[in-house]
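Let us work through a complete example step by step.
Step 1: write down the sequence.
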Amino acid sequence: MISRKWMALAIVLVLAVALLLPACAGPEEEPTTTPPTTQPTKTQEPTATTEGPRYGGTYTTLGSGSLTNLGYSFTIPGHMTTPIYGCLEGFVRHNGRTGEYLPWLFTSWEEDPNEKYIIFHLREGVKYHDGSDFNAEGVKWYFDTHQELTPGWLANVSSTEVIDEYTVKLNTDYFDLVMWAQLNEQHASPTQLAKGEEACLWNPVGTGPFKFVEYKRDQYLKYEAFEDYWDGRPYIDYYIEKFLPDAATQLAALLAGEGDSIRAIQYKDIDLLKSKGFRLPSIFMVECGLIPNTDDPDSVFADIRVREAIEYAIDKETIAKELGYGYMAPFETIYPEPMPGYVTGLSRDYDPDKARQLLADAGLAGGFETDFYVSQFAIMDVMVAVQQYLAEVGIIAHIREVDMGQWTAMRREGWDGLLYQHGIFQAPYEYNLNRAYGPAYADYVSMIRPAGFDELLDKVMRTTDAQARLPLAEQLQVMVHDADCFIPLETWAQIDAISPRLHDDETYLIHGTQSWNCAKAWLSD
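Step 2: predict the structure and record it as tokens.
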């Protein structure tokens, strides 16, 4: 069943990426134009109720962890965007299933065929939550300031010009995949950002359907409906993210009626939640792995033989078969299998004897102990299985569960031992690699990058033609495989549990990994 899903998804992604990326053109050609939109297209999810949409109610989702940044959008980590999704919006929207970038706050654009500029037309009548207007002057200030604070944020953009109140022009040296990905990331009000980082961290001000009310660390994050939202007031009055320490506590709270949903449930709870009437939307676009702290020359993981031993010690095939409930498959390289450019034959298949020999060759015949940090996104049964496989070859890995804030801090500041890596992969996949491991981002800082990695990744990102990018993607995979600085584990479906009283939420349907349509979702009794 999994193989047919992979094949279908791969065909869709290859076709979508091939259609998305513009071909090279001569100087005599006119700019490529994306037609304007007055309203974003929305696909409505069927509901089990005969009621129509209605206003009112509080929607509560259950998660874990403290946050590190809510509103200073110059430095918000990419994986922190879900809690602020309804508050801050991007300039464009990314469909992670197809690779397309769709109009949003930018309604249309014209691209120079020689890649020297791109002109964006802004949606008119958009207000930030602080009452300020969304306009070209604000966009220019945001771009200029972001470039100043984060050199390389838009490395291909030399300057930004205001054409009129609702038109901006980006002067470019070249086009690349990074530019579109950055335009998709949420941004805050320039008026608010001008007050400085401290004023913004815990006070997000955006253009989204929900505006910030309150954040209590380790307790909850609360939003209320924004009456002046450009696409109409959302139906739900209040949206709350409630933080609970672990998956078991979240499940108990959901079953007790203390919340309406859990993001990323544990697979062992699928049957129970189905029996209780919860909807379980899923997206088969999650990859996870282990990243040892290889940047420390004194770390046991500085020896590549130790890293290879870890991969040979883990039976990924059996884990997927016994714990995946049909939603999991082995992850073999730094590229997931359905992504264009995936290279076969790079896997280090389960071989515990070879793992023991590698440890002995590294002077660790007696094994060693290490910390193993896992986040709330991990499927704990899988993590325990990994722990047991490692123990069989003499590696005692102590599982340390950390919340989102701690996990984010480790990624940005460093760690000792093994760190669980989790990502939702999208097309084009190269954006994910750049966002996680690119030189412009201080992420996964304790992972060494092989010699030439940054240069090759930059070349990949500048190659906008999908077919021309394939051989570069293959080189990148071989480079990371040979260095074994990233240990792939599994690809799997992320499954949410949602109360049947939430309707038209379109979870995982319209924007791929952008979670749910909070602007049009509504609650019944």
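Step 3: interpret the result. The mean pLDDT is 86.
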